[in-house]
Amino acid sequence: MRGERLPRQKAKEKRHNRQLTVLISLCAALILVATVETVLFANPEGYRVWLELNPESTTAEYSAFILTRYLLDIFVPVALALYTYFSISRLGTPLTYRLIWGAIIAVTTGYKFLTYQTASAFWYLTLVLLVALFLVVINIHRFELVPMDR
């Protein structure tokens, strides 16, 4: 009896490895793209363009704008990755998880699309990664390595 429990326990532990790997990889890619984009914007040329558009602004306002934009860009991937990492072993990926996080990612994708920064390659890359993350979240139950016992 005890010998049968060990393989089941290992199978249960491995069940979510593939799901987590795919999801966290996409979240990490989104965070990396946002970080590189922020680093490229936080330079003297970006500040000069900011001053042309907002002549009465200060360096602190520019820094606050860049930091706020960065935090908004990484909030959803970080929250999704942390929530999934800590809850998937206990809760799995029920329908409510897929619907709620799918809706949050869809709204985030819409927000990012409405910024309409077609001159930036990061904008396109972020949209592609967000669409991929949306598809992974709504289909995450299909990524199971070991089928669940019923």
Assembly annotation: single chain
What portion of the residues fall into strands of 2 or more residues? under 5%
Structural class: mainly alpha
Sheet with most strands: none
Measure the end-to-end span. Answer: 19 Å
| Low-pLDDT sequence parts | none
The helix fraction, in percent, is over 70%
Q: How many helix segments?
A: 6
State the shape: elongated
Series of secondary-structure elements, N-terminal to C-terminal: HHHHHH
What is the total number of structural domains?
1
Radius of gyration: 20 Å
Report the average pLDDT across residues: 86
The count of DSSP E runs of length 2 or more, i.e. the number of strands, is: 0
Question: What descriptors fit this protein?
Answer:
150 residues; 0% strand; 6 helices; mainly alpha
